[in-house]
Amino acid sequence: MLTTPRTAAAALELHSPKEPGEPPPPAQGTRRASSGEAPSAQREALVPGLGTFRRAFSRVSQRAAGRASEEDPGLLRRSSRFLFRSLRRSQDDRPAVGQCQAPAVPGPGHGPEEPSRATDGVGRQASPREEPEEPEPEAGKSVADLITEWQLLAAFEQLQRLETRLVAEKASHTFEHDPTGFARRAMDVCLHYDGLGAEIRAIVRETLGPDGVAADALAELAHVVRAEEEAHPGSPADGDFLRTPRRWRQHWEDAVRRSAQERVQRAGAGEAGEAAEGASGLARLLAELGGLVRRDLQKVRLEVQPAYAAAGFPAWETYLRAYHGAVAQRLQELARDARGCEQLYILLDWAANVYGSPDFLGAPDLTLSTEPLPPLLAPEVWAQLESDYTSFLETKIASCFESILKLEQSRWAAAVAPEVLQGRYHSSLSIDIHMLVAEHVKAAGAISAELEATTLRICARALGHFLPRFEKTFLESEAVSEPHLGAYINAFEELRTNLLARFPGAFTELEQPLVAATGIFQKRLLQGLQHDVQPLFRLLCTKAWLTQDALRPLMDKVVAFAGHLERVAPPRAQETLQEAHRYVVREYLAQALRPRERLRGAERLTGSQKMGQDAQAIGDTFRGLGSEATWLDQAIPCVADILGETHKDDIQRHLEALIGSYPDIRREHVLAILALRRLGRGRNHRLLQRAQDLLSAGPAGPAGGHVLFAEIPVPASVDLLITCI
């Protein structure tokens, strides 16, 4: 039986027929032309219907060919396999040479694009059992045309009618003697279903592209997905693959995720190489990534979501989860390649403060999520990032303290004197350390409280190592002077008070090291005074001293020293001034208790008066300088009274007053004082016994923690031995 054009048209057709003799109308509303729509007449003449199939299939598949490997690589492989299998069967079924064949050029009732010919057994003989089908009233458009023009719902409805008809024919055993015919027609329907699914993915891909997709196309996509779900609510019990759910909603969600991943991966692609080089490249990459995510999600919320909303599609939540997952994946990739403290911090800061900001989308009425999203970075990844960051941070902070030390050394080498600000010696040391600690602690606190606490511990530990090193380096340098010492005393005092107040609990362990370092600098400051005035004490308590004002040069140096203390922080200045006051009184008494020359008779009385005058001058000077060590005022006058007392019975009273005021006095000091008077043996014995009783009954240590006589060495001499005898 010869196959006629009309008989061949009796097979399943996925296009709209036309009246005989009516020319095929041009396709309307086609979104874009395909380069594969110019068939070769010679190739099409070899197999009847090949050109028609080729044009129809190319429109559906060519657009997806460039992205098939990314979206659904199995689709084109399956479609191609089905295509060539059908072609092989068609060639096997062709009539022998000399028989009539269906014309290569479609006859009446066949449009220029006919996918049904391709998938319904190209060039096969029509079965005598088949009856011509009634034309479908679709205004002359095939399923392929409808899909190409994004008339998805119309294409699906036409496919559903064909599917229903094919299922009914199968149930009526129409294909009992022609199973191949049923398979071909069923495959034709499935291929067009696959093409429709591929077009759904293509629409999703282009939704956020530069040209975008019209809202009505998105709405139609949502409606066709809903329609397919209603048409195929579940897998049929008989396993009929025609009525199997196509799961286009899942394909749509997968396409959304794939689109988000592609766009996120492309963001900052030009900065990827620079990101490996330094922090600035990574910062630019993340800025571009954030901008892309922000623009895309804004477009989804303001344009895409309303288009899907009519069909009840959760577009916003799906896109949000897709972008969140894509950003998380990209960030983990960047975290694996991050190097150095700066890059690690940029990643942590971007995740916590940029992406995690409530106004990340740039509008108060747009938020990232109405329900909690999973962490951007897995807890173990975040913990590793923080661990790596703190490891680098320890090295960086230690390096910063090293730079501070080198900066100070350069100032010493340049002989740059400290500035005087607000009446105080000033060093930038305290400001540099405060800024270093505050900067890193604030940066860490912006990420997490745990990282802030860790950073505080790192800073405290580094400062604890810095203090003794700085102290040793400075004291061994040639820059030691009153202004520098005063400036560093002020700096350490600021660190002790301000750091502990600003970060309570974090720097508690540093309070004692800071106090100790300050004390060492105070001691070194006093050593300068002692070095200057020590030779002047040798003139005291001599015969020449009786007629000279030997005390004035000494007190002039004390006044000059106190001028530096005026530029030192008050608590430390007062401590140092009192220590200077104690030193002068102590050295004066030490000189009096071991005189170079013995004073007798009138000289002893004159010496007593002179000591009283000196005591008055010392007290007045230090009180004028602001010393609060009034407990020192009675030491020299008591010794002067014992030395000049004419009534020997009153010496015991003066001795009792001295021991009562200064319980740290010892028996050797009493012997040295009595040796100045040369009293008789019996009187010396009674006075020593009384002093011993008072010392035994008194406190074990110095009163109020004051130490004076305990630091005055008294060497053994013949005079003391005589006094004891």
Q: Can you tell me about this structure?
A:
By secondary structure, the chain is an all-alpha fold. Helices cover 64% and strands 1% of the residues. The protein folds into 4 domains: 5-12 and 42-246, no CATH class; 255-362, no CATH class; 382-524, Orthogonal Bundle (Tetracycline Repressor, domain 2), CATH 1.10.357; 540-724, Tetracycline Repressor, domain 2, CATH 1.10.357. α10 packs across α13, α19 (482-502) packs antiparallel against α20 (511-533) and α22 runs antiparallel to α23 (602-625). The radius of gyration is 51 Å and the shape is rod-shaped.
In brief:
By secondary structure, the chain is an all-alpha fold. It is 64% helix and 1% strand.
Q: Report the sheet-strand fraction.
A: under 5%
- Give the radius of gyration: 51 Å
> Total number of helical segments?
28
| Strand order in space, largest sheet | 1-2
Broad shape: rod-shaped
Q: Could you tell me the mean pLDDT? A: 79
| Global structural class | mainly alpha
Low confidence ranges: 1-139
- What is the number of domains? 4
How many strands appear in the DSSP assignment? 2
